[in-house]
Write a structure and sequence with these properties.
32% of the residues lie in helices and 25% in strands. The model has no long low-confidence stretch (mean pLDDT 92). The protein has 3 domains: 257 residues, Rossmann fold; 75 residues, Luciferase, Domain 3 (Luciferase, domain 3); 102 residues, GMP Synthetase, Chain A, domain 3 (2-Layer Sandwich), CATH 3.30.300. With 551 residues, it is an alpha/beta fold. The N and C termini lie far apart (58 Å). It is built from 17 helices and 28 strands. Helix 4 packs across helix 5 and helix 12 packs across helix 13. The protein is globular. Strand 17 and strand 18 form a beta hairpin. Keywords: Ligase. It is an enzyme of class 6 (ligase).
């Protein structure tokens, strides 16, 4: 693999130019595969032109926000590009949010047009009587034979119908009908500029208060160029990406939609991660590139071994969102013969800022090295103007062309996150070794202070997760008077285990953890809350424990 450049040029073109180029240079290449329904780049560009005309007719102008609350589907991809073609701003929303929360975020963004999933459109419309809510039935993206099969009175058809289709508003507009009847947007319609706002993505971070990250066209295009420099992907080769990560999350949006289009890849689009569906798609159209999170890789590896499925076509997997266990990486590479590396970033970095090299230097468990044109510092969390000594723990600060400009209508939050010189405070505690590799220790806002000592939850979780009796764990700090906080572990028992006591857990952990870091409380739960891409949500765990545990 050729050497990765230290810098890249910031592109001077907006995002729609990415799709235009792919359609011009690779018109007959399949852009999207949705359960066997193939859409070429020429067809995608044509559909986007008609969809843009639909939105223009509904009053969308440059700078207007349009909310997209859809699962991964060709309709989602079309809507994304259509909004951007008009110079509008895509507001990405989780389609499984409750209607009230969806309405709150739509109101915060100022969006007046909402493209809503048929399963939720009726409840969303009821919460937003003044908005233009357009119903999108993603089952219409399926192959014709599969659309027909959904009507069959059999259990499998009912299950898939329930997963994809709902009861839309009786008098609401229907997306597919509107697009089919529309004429293409005139080619001379003005295009957006690289500096224009492109996307709003809501992130709660550790505070739980959702705020919209503003990403401009240049942020997303340069991060795609940085990614291409890192992977070496060439649009001349027909790569097959697996679009399993949700598009409403920055990781999935960038790698499985924007970056995929930059390299003119074929994307196998899956509305959610399901092992059986993934392996069936792999038999039909073998993949070469998989952005994923560690639990996905682990489950695929196990299932492929059990079912003797062939995953050997995947040359590269990129893991993010949480630490990649060495055993998961080793198992994936042994099974596929390909490489798996860890990447790191935030929505605020468009999202990728660091990655492990795609060669023998890769290190599972380490965040890796800075992307091209990306700078890092390790600073004192209490005074980020001061860097810590080499090798010491500190807060990771990032600067680069992919770093965002601020939060939507949140000047105070923006000022707290962005320091002079364009340095972004990540809130992540890291160390950097002599070779420049960055390793995550924990998040500043989730570090537990007990008796004057700092306890890093991820280190305690890593130890407890290795205990055979524990399936999953979240470690949080709970109020403890003069002590400050006490370390409490919420655990899910492994299959077949009926009970586990605190003494046994402390004995297990004491071999690797300082005494002050050992759990002082243990709560057994049936499941733990996870984010859309699989990360345990410690904040939610702590809130639940605060309302349920005795003082």
């Amino acid at each position: 693999m050729k050497a990765t450049p230290h810098t890249v040029a910031v592109p001077d073109w907006p995002l729609p130019a990415v799709l235009d180029r792919a359609a011009r240079e690779h018109p007959e290449r399949v852009a999207l595969d949705f359960f066997g329904a193939a859409t070429t780049y020429r067809q995608l560009a044509d559909t986007v032109a008609r969809a843009a005309s639909v939105l223009a007719a509904r009053g969308v102008r440059a700078g207007d926000r349009v909310a997209i609350a859809l699962p991964n589907s060709p309709s989602h991809v079309v809507a994304f590009w259509a909004v951007l073609r008009l110079g509008g701003v895509v507001v990405e929303l989780n389609p499984t949010l409750g209607a009230a929360e969806t309405a709150r975020l739509v109101a915060d963004s100022g969006a007046h047009v909402v493209l809503a999933w048929a399963k939720t459109a009726a409840s969303v419309a009821a919460e937003l009587p003044d908005a233009d809510v357009v119903t999108v039935d993603v089952s219409r993206d399926l192959p014709k034979v599969k659309q027909w099969a959904l009507r069959l009175p059999v259990r499998s058809a009912r299950a898939q119908r329930d997963a994809l289709v709902g009861t839309p508003p009786a008098d609401g507009a229907r997306w597919h009908a509107l697009v089919a009847a529309a004429a293409p947007l005139p080619g001379e319609h003005p295009s957006p500029a690289p500096e224009d706002l492109a996307v709003l993505i809501y992130t709660g971070g550790t505070t739980g208060d959702p705020k919209a990250v503003m990403l401009r066209h240049r942020h997303l295009t340069v991060n795609a160029v940085q990614g291409q420099a890192w992977t070496g992907h060439d649009a001349a080769a027909a790569e097959v990406f697996y679009g399993v990560l949700p598009y409403f999350h920055a990781f999935g949006l960038q790698l499985c939609l924007v970056y995929a289009t930059v390299v003119a890849a074929t994307v196998v689009v899956l509305p959610k991660f399901d092992v059986r569906t993934f392996l069936a798609a792999q038999r039909r159209r073998p993949g070469t590139f998989l952005p994923a999170v560690p639990p996905m890789l682990a489950r695929l590896t196990t299932a492929a071994r059990e079912k003797q499925a062939d995953l050997g076509s995947f040359r590269i997997a990129i893991s993010g969102s949480m630490a990649l266990p060495a055993e998961t990486a080793q198992a994936w590479e042994a099974l596929t013969g390909g490489l798996v590396i860890e990447g790191y970033g935030m929505t605020e970095t468009s999202p990728v800022a660091l990655g492990s090299p795609l060669d023998e230097r890769r290190r599972p468990g380490a965040l890796g090295l800075p992307f091209p044109s990306t700078q890092i510092r390790v600073a004192n969390p209490d005074d980020p103007a001061l860097d810590v000594a080499p090798g010491e723990r500190g807060e990771l600060l990032i600067a680069g062309p992919q770093v965002f400009d601020g939060y939507w209508n949140r000047p105070e939050d923006t000022a707290a996150a962005l320091l002079p010189g364009g340095w972004l405070r990540t809130g992540d505690i890291v160390t950097v070794d002599d070779d420049g590799f960055v390793t995550l220790v924990d998040r500043t806002k989730e570090v537990i202070v007990t008796g004057g000592f700092k306890v890093y939850p991820s280190q305690v979780e890593d130890r407890l997760r290795a205990m055979p009796e524990i399936e999953d764990v979240a470690v949080v700090g709970m109020p403890a008077g003069d002590l400050g906080e006490r370390v409490v572990a919420a655990i899910v028992l492994a299959k077949g285990v009926t009970s586990l006591d605190l003494t046994t857990v402390r004995e297990w952990a004491s071999a690797n953890l300082a005494r002050y870091a050992l759990p002082r409380g243990l709560v057994v739960v049936t499941e733990l809350p996870h984010s859309a891409i699989g990360k345990v949500m410690r904040r939610v765990v702590r809130e639940r424990l605060l309302t349920s545990m005795p003082a």
